[in-house]
Amino acid sequence: MAQPFQLRILVRGYELDTQGHLNQAVYLQYCEHARWESLRAAGISQDDLIATRIGPAVLENTMRFHRELRGGDEVDVTCQWIWGDGKTFRVHQEIRRTDGVLVAELTSVAGLIDLNKRKLISEPAEHFHKLAENPEIMGF
Length: 140
Hints:
The chain is an alpha+beta fold. The termini are close together. It has one domain (5-133): Hotdog Thioesterase (Thiol Ester Dehydrase, Chain A), CATH 3.10.129. The chain has three helices and six strands; from the N terminus they run βααβββββα.
């Protein structure tokens, strides 16, 4: 299995909650940002997806928090695409401090939706693979 895509992010002061740690919703935003950057690194832009009239749809997110983050912390956010059969796929992501400590994990179930029919397409991996210039980033 290929190494997961990784993106470094600096925790900014305006993302903190009243307790002085990273607001829980921002962890999800970091993961979303890493997913889009993973697609971009694979050579797939949002415009590419829109042109095909097919776009990603998250069906389920499960976030597990392990440690807090504070302003100025740097983290590495990974993105690992897990392909199977059918209309859905999984994305596993980890947020780790630069010292390697696991901060949070996100597992998502997603699919690709036909924007005209408003229904999930069959074989989302095949669609992504056709668009990708660097398919190995997505585990192909």
